[in-house]
Amino acid sequence: MIAQPKTVQHPESGASSPLSVRDLTVVYREKPALWDVDLEVPAGQLCAIVGPNGAGKSTLIKAVLGLVPVASGQVRFFGQSLEQARKRIGYVPQRGSVDWDFPTSALDVVMMGLYGRLGWFRRPGRLEREAALRCLEQVSMSEFAERQISQLSGGQQQRVFLARALAQNADLYFMDEPFAGVDAVTEEAILHVLHQLKGQGKTVVVVHHDLQTVRDYFDHLTLLNVQVIASGPMDETFTPENLKRTYGERMRWEA
Amino acid sequence: MSDLLLIFTDYTLRNVALGSAMLGVVGGVLGVFAVLRRQSLLGDVLAHAALPGICLAFILTGAKAPLILLVGGGLAGWLAAWLVLAVLRHSRLPEDSALGVMLSSFFGFGVALLTFIQHSNNASQAGLDQYIFGQAATIVASDVLNFTVLGGLALLTVGLFYKEFKLLAFDPAYAHSLGLPVRGLNTLLTSLTVLAVMVGLQTVGVVLMAAMLIAPAAAARQWTDRLGAMIGLSALFGALAGVSGALISATRENLPTGPLVVLSMSAILLVSLFFAPLRGLVWDWARTRQHRRRVYLERLLLDAHVLHAHGTLTPQSLAERRREPVAVALQNLEALRSLGWVQEHPQGFILTPTGEQKAHELEQAMRVLLHRVEGSS
Ligand SMILES: Nc1ncnc2c1ncn2[C@@H]1O[C@H](COP(=O)(O)OP(=O)(O)OP(=O)(O)O)[C@@H](O)[C@H]1O
Ligand SMILES: [Mg+2]
């Protein structure tokens, strides 16, 4: 492979975008999961990442957050490195990534969102409890605060994860399929939170699966299938042409 | 009762009991994290891997001082854990295979070294094999002091890093995303487990040590849904098992302490599995039975209600409707009557006002349920 000379014209000056990804490549075994991904996420918008199963959507989020090793590439947050910007970034993992039989309550899980800010050796106290309760309130889950987390429904667990990220009070959020397997009530609650975040000028990057709703819920769209197929404002990007290139010819869809 | 008093008067027994209790507490606390992180087998590897370390420490230094041997054992356990991680990172071996292979390799090597030491003409070799199954009777006051320092260090560290360890156990990826040094915390937690193993080597030995990590935590989990309470209970159960084991072995000549400690712990685990109110099998079984019985009676009431509406609630009509023998129908009516839902009547039976009320509520609830199922499909 020939190393391309990198033109360093990074938007260090001016208003840096919340997330800017250059030439990101991730390889798990032999086959690349992400290949040369370039991405600029606009500030203050709700951004969807869409693509078929195995397209590398989760991998993209994990890679920019430093959770999986990266073969090459550069990631900047607000013009800063991950370490510098860490406190401005919130993360909502896929619900299935943890064991919900863990001996802890919903409120406890939400308080975990504050651990980064608490720092070493300090235990969460009354202030943290109250902050966490407010976050549970935002996702309409206050009444379940003391409930053991295995006794929550899937949608309620998803909302607890969302509340935990809200507790981080970040400027940029990554959410991995928050709408997966939830009912209408939870979907409504999550959507409400997304709009609140947008109203506060925050940027949210969401992995989404439902092509029926993506246009209504989001402002910005990135179509991903190992490579970035298209990325831009929803109206320009959500085209039959682009979808076909992302999902393959056989994909049927309704306009 | 006089046996209990022995703890305060008998010097040897006091040391044995203190040593075993210390093991119970430290193993109990660290075991909680091992169990929650699904790393029970790693504890077993750490313990078994200590044997070659103990032997090598003896060969290299010629010393029989327990502390030196324990440090050797601890280092070997730590090396084994590190090797397991390296193997997992660089090969496609499944985790349980890597753990199993490492356990057998280290233990096999340890047994070989032990045999080598016993065959060499070294007068002071006697006693190394006590580390296989433990020999609590050899615990003296200085050992108890060692255990207290090692264990105290481990417990203090868990206290300091409690919230980090909790997050690490629940959601390591999220911990990483918050910027916590997940690998460092992992290493720290494993090292603390090594300390716990060192506390237990003299009492229960390398083979039985894993039980003192896993069983107290597993038992404690049955009683609570809170991590803090689980850790406290686990420590308590471990200590209880330690002291009981020491006492029982003291009352019978020649009963080994280590195995009795582990047996006591198993007894506590068994009781917890069956009788703990939250998850215990007995309550679970009772609850299920009760629930089934309730649903059965409610169905029965609804049947009776239909017949009652036609004015023909008799044992015969109930038997026909439910396709059951008349004798069973009689029993069923008797059950409904003892609940105050039906009463006798010249033409057979009728529903009481309470019964009618209850039947209406049930029908209402059923309608809501059916409506919701239809609505969501
Ligand atoms: N830990 C891993 N080790 C090896 N390969 C992996 C690992 N995680 C993901 N992969 C592979 O990388 C590719 C991308 O996976 P990823 O989970 O990012 O897809 P995704 O777009 O999130 O899919 P989904 O819609 O199913 O969630 C897949 O082919 C997957 O098999
Ligand atoms: Mg995914």
Could you characterize the architecture of this molecule?
Chain A: Residues 19-251 form the ABC transporter domain. The complex is a heterodimer of chains A (255) and B (377). With 255 residues, chain A is α/β, with parallel strands linked by helices. Chain A has helices at residues 57-64, 82-85, 106-111, 115-118, 126-138, 154-167, 184-199, 211-217, 234-237, 240-247, and strands at 19-27, 32-41, 46-50, 72-76, 89-92, 172-176, 203-207, 220-225, 227-233. The termini of chain A are far apart. Chain B is mainly α. Chain B has two domains: 2-274, Orthogonal Bundle (ABC transporter involved in vitamin B12 uptake, BtuC), CATH 1.10.3470.10; 283-376, Arc Repressor Mutant, subunit A (Orthogonal Bundle). In chain B, strands 1-2 form a two-stranded antiparallel sheet. The chains are: A alpha/beta (255), B mainly alpha (377). The interface between A and B is medium-sized, with 31 and 28 residues. Magnesium ion is lined by residues 57-58, 176 of chain A.
Which key terms come to mind for this protein?
heterodimer, A: 255 residues, 6-stranded mixed sheet, 3-stranded antiparallel sheet, B: 377 residues, mainly alpha, ABC transporter involved in vitamin B12 uptake, BtuC, Arc Repressor Mutant, subunit A, 2 domains, two-stranded antiparallel ribbon, 17 helices, 80% helix, binds adenosine-5'-triphosphate, binds magnesium ion, transport (chain A), P-loop_NTPase (chain A), nucleotide-binding (chain A), ABC_transporter-like_ATP-bd (chain A), ABC transporter related protein (chain A)
Q: Name the helix and strand elements of chain A from N-terminus to C-terminus, one letter apiece.
A: EEEHEHEHHHHEHEHEEHH
Number of domains of chain A: 1
> What is the count of helical runs of chain A?
10
Q: Tell me, briefly, the overall form of chain B.
A: elongated
- The CATH superfamily label of chain A reads P-loop containing nucleotide triphosphate hydrolases
The oligomeric status of these chains comes to heterodimer
Strand content of chain B: under 5%
Q: Sheet bearing the most strands of chain A, described?
A: 6 strands, mixed
| Average of the residue pLDDT scores of chain B | 89
Low-pLDDT residue spans of chain A:
1-14
